[in-house]
Specification:
The structure holds 2 protein chains of 2 kinds. By secondary structure, chain A is an alpha+beta fold. In chain A, strands 1-2-8-5-3 form a 5-stranded mixed beta sheet. A 3-stranded antiparallel beta sheet of chain A has the order 4-10-9. In chain A, strand 1 and strand 2 form a beta hairpin. The mean pLDDT of chain A is 93. Chains A and B meet through helix 6 of A and helix 1 and helix 2 of B.
Chain lengths: 406, 73
Amino acid sequence: MSSALADAADAPSFPERRTCPYHPPESYKQIGARGPLNKVTLWNGRRVWLITGYELARTLLTDTRLSADRTRQEYPTMAPHLEAQAARKLVLVGEDPPLHDKHRRLLNPEFSLKRARVLQPDIQRIIDELVDNILAIGPGADLVPEYAMPIPSRVMSALLGVPYEDHDFFQAATAGVMQARDQAQSQAAGTELAQYLGKLVDAEVRRPSDGIVGRLTEHVRSGELTQDELAQLTMVLMIAGLETTSSMIPLGVITLLEHPEQLAEFTSGEVPVPTAVEELLRFLAVTDFGAVRWITGDIELGPEYGDEVIRTGDGIVVSSTMANRDPGVHHDPHEFDISRGNRQHLTFGYGIHQCLGQNLARLQLEIAYRTLFARIPTLRLGIASEDIRMRTNGTMQGVERLPVEW
Amino acid sequence: MRTVGIRVTADRERCIGAGLCVLTAPTVFEHDDTEGLVSIVDEDPPPEDARDLKLAQELCPARAIRIEPNTAV
């Protein structure tokens, strides 16, 4: 570890939990106020660089001296359960070029903007069915299990070609890997998921179905991918696709309900749905930190960053929560402004690892918010807003329950 | 030589198919069907597109977009 980091007199603890669904903890604002480059202390005592400035984050995340290889001990682990092998050996997200690029290129055609738009009617049908169900069980429901969790689960199952009957298992297993209380729990969930996916891929290789996994078996037959790599890719797509979107949907609903005048502009169509979703993405920064990397070669920063040198082996964490609220980029950054429509945020990360599923995520969020408020216009919180509890496990920002009434 | 417009090029070797260029400047960029990577539909866009193009270039996570003045004798 570098001396600049080790000698840091004041390296506050990171990450801290949000108590409000959308506002960052006070400690984040204090760290951000010191400048774009900060030293923080992780749960295990390790000191890493925390980037809170948008420009510096973009500069670093396109630097080839940053590695995403999680199997290396230099890679900062952000929570105890992420020490588990199941969370450390992730294809694509935990790979560097050239292997990363090879795997990304196999998946790009499946997640292009055009491909996402083709899925629009299917996603709308899935979401309409869920609203039908909510209206049938109403006049009250918990939107976490009845809406937010099944949306990405059904969409991803359909897209990947995974039998929907298994969606309960998937939800539990992916949440088990990423939200486990400890390393053993995370590892157990990962092993179970890997076994299931191993069988699934085996069946798809023998008889490909009409989904992403079925189509990717072509690369197994051509020898480009091993069967094991395909199973791991499927696991990563599931983990990346489920928890992010299912955590984001309730946070957005709460934010809209808590800003009734802006919600009215949304439901009236005055503010286009994609514009509103982009601001929700910026404002809520559901992943909290957008990138975790370690450094493979000294990086000398310029005078605007105090000529600081980031040393080989140092860890870097990008706070998307704070970079999305960089006052140099956004006017009144801590205000929710539904018509802002600015894509200069790091919620999907930046650099070669930027979210593969972002087009699909945007589309699901657009349809989820539009449909919910159009079909249940009198929707309101079923509990006092101060009683909304943030989840205390995992690193993703989310609520445990979201009771609503209408 | 005088500047007569903008010339846009995109490096498909760098492109990761994020799609931000297509969202930001849809009359200039699109995703192709086979690889899901950037393709340019208008290489010589009108000057009024300059702001959107600059933003698309800035948002590109793979730094795959180049914008130059299109010069003519």
